[in-house]
Design brief:
8 helices; 9 strands; 3-stranded antiparallel sheet; alpha+beta
């Protein structure tokens, strides 16, 4: 099933609600509609595939798939980054963090920028709650690189490519900030979990850090693989919503999409994300 949820920007020219005529891709934009809170979801057959169409009941807008003209190399790259951002998003929701929107920008020369809005504020009233919070935060950060390695093709079970995920975290692929944050949180968690360790005992500290890293990595991988279908489905929806950004005086070379928190929360895959904890 493909998901799409996009709104016409020039609402003053929107057709009546009963008009089922299709509109050119160039006239569509996913985020500028003022009444984005009033959405209804309806399914239409598209050959052997179904697409999710979103209408605004107030303005009567209708939009379908928007990336048919995106070059294959750009689309493939966009899907990888969409997997990354949606893995952050899905993991955060599963672990109880409040979430906002997800954004993605990809250029024709394959530069990209993406983000998933996550609220980090949480009440912490005990040491155990602090340790759980730190582990959950590490899992959210690690999930992005793991999600990026998931296959977008249909398969009975999607698995994380651990070597590739490690390369994404440690290499120059844009996830270095995630890895830097994980390493800082890892040190803080070790300091709390093993308060009696002599700071001069480097071998013991290394072993403690490895134990924490291995445990959190395995739990993150377990959750990412369990929710892989949700991650890839939402990532596909994100990419299907990308439009070419208009450039003043020159041809556009950038695709972008912004899905607000409200739009995402109305999707059934998001509503079906289970509540999980940091330990299995």
């Amino acid at each position: 099933m493909k998901l799409g949820f996009f709104l016409r920007s020039e609402v003053e020219q929107a057709p009546a609600l009963g008009d089922r005529s299709k509109h050119p891709v160039e006239s569509l934009h996913p985020t500028t509609h003022k009444c984005a809170s009033a959405l209804v979801y309806r399914y239409y057959a598209d050959g052997q595939r179904q697409s999710l169409v979103v209408e605004c009941e107030i303005q009567g807008c209708e939009v379908t798939q928007m990336t048919k003209k995106m070059p294959p190399a750009v689309r493939d790259h966009a899907l990888q980054i969409a997997h990354h951002e949606m893995a952050h998003y899905v993991m955060a929701r599963a672990l109880g963090f409040a979430t906002g929107g997800v954004t993605l920008t990809v250029t024709m020369d394959l530069r990209h920028q993406g983000g998933a809005s996550i609220t980090l504020a949480r009440s912490i009233s005990s040491i155990d709650a602090m340790k759980e919070y730190l582990q959950a935060r590490m899992m959210v950060l690690l999930a992005g690189a793991m999600g990026q390695t998931l296959s977008s093709t249909h398969s009975p079970r999607k698995l994380v490519d651990k070597p590739k995920a490690t390369t994404i975290l440690k290499g120059g692929f844009g996830a270095e900030q995630d890895y830097a944050k994980v390493r800082e949180l890892q040190q803080l968690l070790r300091n709390i979990a093993y308060p009696d360790t002599d700071p001069a005992s480097s071998d013991r500290i290394t072993a403690e850090l490895k134990e924490i890293t291995d445990r959190v990595w395995l739990r993150t991988q377990e959750v990412v693989e369990a929710l892989a279908d949700t991650i890839t489905e939402l990532a596909l929806a994100l990419v299907d919503g990308m439009v070419m950004v208009e450039q003043w005086g020159r041809a556009g070379d950038t695709y972008e999409v912004v899905l607000t928190g409200g739009m995402l929360e109305r999707l059934r895959p998001v509503q079906a994300i289970p509540a999980l904890c940091v330990v299995s």
